[in-house]
Design brief:
CATH topology of the largest domain: Rossmann fold
Number of domains: 2
Helix content: 25-40%
Number of helices: 11
CATH class of the largest domain: Alpha Beta
Structural class: alpha/beta
Distance between the termini: 59 Å
Shape: globular
Largest sheet: 4 strands, parallel
Radius of gyration: 20 Å
Order of helices and strands: EHEHHEHHEHEHEHHEHEH
Strand content: 15-25%
C-alpha cells in the first residue's frame, strides 16, 4: 500500500462524545423491498429531537398473496441484524401489516428477538389494535388494497382480538408497487365512504404502501371519527414503546394519547 508523508503541521485533535441522534429513542424499522411509502411517511412524522429510526430492507414479492407473505418469515432475523449492529435499538418495527397477520404477530416478534432479545417489538396490525383500544374504539371500518382472501382473514383476525370490523372496503389490487401509487383523492373518498356508517367508530387503513398519513388529521376532521393507518399507527406505537410520550396533535387523535 502506498503511503503519503503527513505535513509537519498535522495535529491529532481531541474530541468528546455526546449521546448521538438517538438520545431519546433508537427505533429499528424493517421495510419490505417493494415498499415505496413507509420511510417517506416516517421521515415526516418522526422529527422529534433525539429520536432516530434506522432502516433495513427485506426481500419480498410484489405480488401480495398469503403464500408470498408467509415466505417473509425466514428473512426477518437477517433484516433485523442489519439495524445498527452492536448499538442500542430500543424498538424494532416490522413493516408489513398483512404479513404480520399471516405469519402471526408473536412469531414475528420471536424472529426479531433472535437478533434483538432486549428490544420492544411492534407491527402495523399490533400498533393498530393497541391504538384503537387506546382511543376507546372497538367497531371499525377497514380499508385495504388486498385481495379478498386476505381481507376475510384480516377481518377475522381483528375480530378474534376484540376489534369488530363492521364495514370494509378494498381496492382489491395485488401489486404492491402499484398500490403505492393510489392517489390522495381515491384514498380520501374511500375512507369517508367506509367511515360513514353509524356502526363504525373509527377507520383503519391497512397497508404500509398506501400514502395517507399526512392527510389523516384533515380526513378525521371531515369524518368526525378517528382515522389511523398502518404507518401512522406503527409510528405512534414505536414512539410510545420507546418511552416518547409527546403529544403531536398535528398527526391526529391517536398521537394525543
Amino acid at each position: 500500500m502506498n503511503t503519503v508523508a503527513l505535513p509537519d503541521n498535522y495535529v491529532r485533535l481531541d474530541f468528546t462524545l455526546d449521546e448521538g441522534v438517538a438520545r431519546r429513542a433508537a427505533i429499528g424499522l424493517v421495510v419490505l423491498a417493494t415498499d415505496h411509502t413507509i420511510e417517506h411517511e416516517w421521515r415526516k412524522m418522526l422529527t422529534l429531537d433525539g429520536v432516530a429510526f434506522f432502516e433495513s430492507r427485506l426481500l419480498n414479492s410484489a405480488d401480495i398473496t398469503p403464500e408470498t407473505l408467509m415466505e417473509m418469515e425466514g428473512r426477518i432475523a437477517d433484516a433485523v441484524a442489519l439495524l445498527r449492529p452492536g448499538e442500542r435499538i430500543d424498538v424494532v418495527a416490522f413493516g408489513c401489516t398483512s404479513a404480520s397477520m399471516v405469519i402471526g404477530e408473536e412469531r414475528v416478534f420471536e424472529r426479531i428477538r433472535e437478533v434483538r432479545p432486549q428490544s420492544r417489538c411492534t407491527t402495523p396490525i399490533t400498533a393498530a389494535r393497541v391504538g384503537l383500544q387506546k382511543l376507546g374504539t372497538t367497531r371499525i371500518g377497514l380499508l385495504t388494497p388486498y385481495v379478498r382472501p386476505i381481507n376475510e382473514a384480516m377481518a377475522a383476525y381483528l375480530g378474534e382480538r376484540g376489534i369488530d370490523v363492521t364495514a370494509m372496503g378494498s381496492f382489491e389490487h395485488g401489486n404492491d408497487n402499484e398500490v403505492a401509487r393510489i392517489d390522495d383523492a381515491s384514498l380520501r373518498r374511500a375512507i369517508l365512504a367506509v367511515g360513514a356508517r353509524d356502526d363504525v367508530d373509527a377507520v383503519f387503513v391497512s397497508c404500509t404502501s398506501l400514502r395517507v398519513a399526512e392527510a389523516l388529521a384533515g380526513i378525521e376532521a371531515e369524518l368526525g371519527k378517528p382515522v389511523t393507518s398502518s404507518n401512522h399507527a406503527m409510528a405512534w406505537h414505536a414512539l410510545r414503546l420507546g418511552g416518547v410520550d409527546d403529544a403531536l396533535p398535528q398527526w391526529g387523535r391517536l398521537f394525543t394519547v
